[in-house]
Amino acid sequence: MKTFSIAKSRRLRSTPYTSRIEEQGVTAYTTYNHMLLPAAFGSLEDSYHHLKESVQVWDVAGERQVEINGKDSAKLVQLMTCRDLSKSKDGRCYYCPIIDDKGGIINDPVVLRLSSDRWWLSIADSDVLLFAKGLAIGNNFSVNIFEPDVNIIAVQGPKSFKLMEKIFGEKITQLKFFGFDYYDFKGTKHLIARSGWSKQGGYEIYVEHTKSGLDLYDTLFEKGKDLDVKPGCPNLIERIESALLSYGNDIDINDNPLECGFDKFVNVDSDINFLGKEKLIKIKSEGVSKKLMGVKLDLKKINITESIDIMDENSNPIGELRSGCYSPYFDQVIGIAMLNKPNWNANQAIKIKINDQAFDGKVCDLPFI
Amino acid sequence: MKTFSIAKSRRLRSTPYTSRIEEQGVTAYTTYNHMLLPAAFGSLEDSYHHLKESVQVWDVAGERQVEINGKDSAKLVQLMTCRDLSKSKDGRCYYCPIIDDKGGIINDPVVLRLSSDRWWLSIADSDVLLFAKGLAIGNNFSVNIFEPDVNIIAVQGPKSFKLMEKIFGEKITQLKFFGFDYYDFKGTKHLIARSGWSKQGGYEIYVEHTKSGLDLYDTLFEKGKDLDVKPGCPNLIERIESALLSYGNDIDINDNPLECGFDKFVNVDSDINFLGKEKLIKIKSEGVSKKLMGVKLDLKKINITESIDIMDENSNPIGELRSGCYSPYFDQVIGIAMLNKPNWNANQAIKIKINDQAFDGKVCDLPFI
């Protein structure tokens, strides 16, 4: 596949760590929330193996925060998501599909409840801030909405616990999954969550104090030498094997949360008020007509830059492949596909065409493993 | 400067023309509204000279449309912009700053009035669709808001008139600046505006019928051979020399339209209703404290990837350089800068530092020429 350079400009914002990752050998970028997000440090497959065995430090500042605070903040956050947050607690993260009045997904952030009237939406790639602003203005809510200066460093991989313990002490290992708290680094408090966009374990450090954050970034590499720490980034192979969905790739505004396997976050039976509730009640009672599924293909290589049509054995179109990669674990290409009803049976035979050549495959359940 | 590749995926959407421009030699991409936007075909300077002398065809599908139609569409569009649209006409384009309730700029689209209850906002790089949706839901407006399948081809340069005449006949040359109409191409009607993101003259073809659009794309190259037609893209040098502002580069949500020289589109004296009106009335009466200005620097080369601090002669910070390039016309670096009051006098001496080296320069008025 031909490669093309990325034309940098102020509009594709650098992060506080950009100069560091460029010294450390980043080779490819994507953009995320109008910001540079590293996409590769050389071979994706080498990074994949390293991530599963060791520990990596990621510049994921592109996961921007939308802060919503003020008297009506809880009301506004709840209005935007079909997940019931009425029993949410301070110091906890909540994965929340953000939906519009039609039930279409606008984003799938992790919502951090800092307090009952102060929230961060740690967003995927769409301007949730503008949606929240529009809703707040239209509803005359008493809230402040802005993007705080927060630049996340993720520490991911099985050895992340050991590395973080070296810096923050044993108590960081007691932080529960999707919990967060403030931890001291040389006199500066950092919000740290046990979370991250891999299934290999780890933390996300929500850096609000850039100078201390840069010192911390460097310290992670110093203290991690004997753990074979390396710079990294969300890994396409690992995230697909783990079925971590990517907004814009696997999901878009034309999909509803029931089509994306988010059933347990579609709390239509609660008495909370959120956009698209009636629509989702109707969809739930009627059932969905398309659904995200896994596929395995008799291929050893794929580069997905746009949706690829999927056909059944008789060459009828039945859906589209939205992301995919060669999986070292399965030794074949795996992918995430939106498939029309009733093509949801694991092992159903499928076909795709790439450059006019047909390849066979099978439907499978998500997650793959 | 080191270069990095762009990691393609479905999330950075391809356009109908992507495969064509990749055959034609695109070398760099940026992203724009979650879509690939070509940023270079080899040398920027060669493209600049060619654009000023001849004609280029640009894939600017990343200039997405937000369609707003329905009973309350005019009300919603007006609510979002400080430009008075009460006397707007069908078939005309209007450059409209979109602002929030604080007067901060959210986007600066060209608004096309298709009819009194059907509008397209041809947007810069931010999700105006989500802002419009939030406002419409909150205000309970009767509107439909969606991104139609429109992929613009721009034909730019002094010979664009000749080329378009060859394909659409003489009447296309009678289209007035910022007017649009429908023109026939082999039986398919295409909306064509006399507009484009250069000051070299030309058209934008709002392709709604992809198959015909691809045929048209190829025809532009066939019929343009004797006019030395080439593929191109918005050119950094030409757009800065012409002082065409770029949202995200020169302008962001922390700027208001009076700081960006949009005074004539800030119609606070009309009786229309728009967001941030009171705020803008106050700002107008008090005067702004920062303003976009031009700068000329004693440099022959620059690569701007983030804001660069600007100092006065005594090294006091007075603003920031937001975009810039080497200008063949002035034979030095020129740029667009946000400068604090009172540093707005043309010829005022300024300094910037790049890699700890200081360079001298001068303030100048916009546009440069």
Describe this protein's structure.
The structure is a homodimer of 369-residue chains. Chain A has 369 residues and is of the alpha+beta class. Among the domains of chain A are: 18-63 and 150-240, 2-Layer Sandwich (Gyrase A, domain 2); 289-369, Elongation Factor Tu (Ef-tu), domain 3 (Beta Barrel). Chain A has eight helices and 22 strands. In chain A, strands 13-14-15-12-4-16 form a six-stranded mixed sheet, sandwiched between helices. In chain A, strands 17-20-19-18-21-22 form a six-stranded antiparallel β-barrel. A five-stranded antiparallel sheet of chain A has the order 6-9-10-5-11, with helices on one face. Chain A is globular, with a radius of gyration of 21 Å. Chains A and B meet through strand 1, strand 2 and helix 4 of A and strand 1, strand 2 and helix 4 of B.
Fraction in beta strands of chain A: 25-35%
* Count of β-strands of chain A: 22
Q: Which runs of chain A of at least 5 residues are low in confidence (pLDDT < 50)?
A: none
Please summarize the sheet with the most strands of chain A. Answer: 6 strands, mixed
Quaternary class:
homodimer
Mean pLDDT across every amino acid position of chain A: 97
Sum up the structure in keywords.
Elongation Factor Tu (Ef-tu), domain 3; 8 helices; Gyrase A, domain 2; 369 residues; globular; six-stranded mixed beta sheet; six-stranded antiparallel barrel; alpha+beta; homodimer
How is the secondary structure organized here?
The structure is a homodimer of 369-residue chains.
Chain A: E1 5-6, H1 18-23, E2 28-31, E3 36-40, H2 44-53, E4 56-59, E5 65-69, H3 73-80, E6 92-95, E7 98-99, E8 105-107, E9 110-115, E10 118-122, H4 128-139, E11 144-146, E12 151-156, H5 160-168, E13 180-185, E14 188-193, E15 202-207, H6 210-223, E16 230-232, H7 236-241, H8 277-286, E17 290-297, E18 308-311, E19 317-327, E20 332-340, E21 349-354, E22 357-364
Parallel strand pairs in A: 4-16
Antiparallel strand pairs in A: 2-3, 4-12, 5-10, 5-11, 6-9, 7-8, 9-10, 12-15, 13-14, 14-15, 17-20, 17-22, 18-19, 18-21, 19-20, 21-22
